[in-house]
Amino acid sequence: MLAPTGTIRPIIIFLLSLLSLLVYLKLSYHPSLQNFKVWSASSFQNESLANHPLSEIAIHDDNEQAPRIRQASMVFGDSENAVIERSLKTHFRHGKKWGNPTHVLRQDSVGGKQFGKLVFNKILYLHSLSVREMVKPPQKRCEWIVWFDSDSVLLNEDIPWSAFLPPGDGFQHVHLIGAKDWNGFNSGVFFLRMNAWTVQMLTDALALPSLRKDIDLGYNTEQTALCWVFEQSGRYEHIVYQPRPWFNGYEHGVDAPIVQSGDLLIHFAGYAPERKGPSMGKWLDRLEDGQQRRTLQIPMENTTYPHQINDYWQRLRNAQRTFDRVGRLKGHWDNITNHDDLEKKENALKKVCWEEAFNRKRMLLRIDELNKALDVAEKEKADAPMKAEKEEKERKKKEKEDERKQKEQEEAKKKENDEETKERAKENFVEQGEKIKSDH
Question: Left if phi > 0, otherwise alpha if psi is -120 to 50, otherwise beta: which for 360?
Fold first, then answer.
């Protein structure tokens, strides 16, 4: 957690919460927003969203029922870029198909012209959306918000965001789903569960630049701030990382396969402006060409997604079962000689689960290592009563043997003493006889 001195932290957090509320009110009651809050599919087919003076737009949000998922993004600075507008429409269509309202921030709420300040709008906007949801009655809230950067193109509308969410059994503790590239967590696409944990996490990330000026946030300030908050105790246990190509694919990369037909999304992270537009345009042209679109938009059941996703969550279930085995043994630590090795292997598996659950090979290896150590420990525990009984018998046998030996030693000592007494008596008798003789 953040650790400033005195009363600065609560004051800053209060001000940040107030700022988020003001942003919410500004977005909710913007004059233009009242007329354009809900857009039909035809509303954006032939128009650039940049032409509308909105602080925020919300696509396909009828407010009649709580959607399971909302999706969010932001665009300004590039708002005049037709390619960005085309990319946004791919997300709008995807959201409409699966009933996920789309929220797009179109006005800088931080007030910074520098990239490092502009990107902090992402955290502020997510905080605002999260607060909006949390003040609703529980039955009216969405369950998740999916963030996507506007320099991403939704390639395959047949893959829903919900495919990547945790199964209902045993994963209620997962509050954030992300992906990593060779630099670590990439904030281009990630999932947030709507709850108090998320609001507090985003609050801490917003407060970080003010409360911890000693931390260098670098170029991708919002991403670095999120990563710092993720690493704090009580946070990393609630985050899982999935294979990046599933929902945050790259055109090029050194850590994972590049985008393939049937993949959900391609993200043009880190591209220079002069390269980003043409690269995005190439993929958008493919999507807008009927024949090429069919090669990209493959039904989910015909992709590797179902098997890979099921395998991913099954590995995490197996890891949890393994942790449960460790928990059942910890009350019997005194009977287990390899408990230090068990703790070491348990921590190694936790590290993989928290930091790289997407690494199938490493996950399976760590699960196997811990299970083998548990097999030894559980056998030792199972054998403990028999071992204790055997040790008790050995102890009693040794006690009897020690008693017997002690008795023999005492008898031998007594016999030795008796012999010595007899010998001394005999010597005394002889001495007395000699004395009598000498007297006569």
Answer: alpha
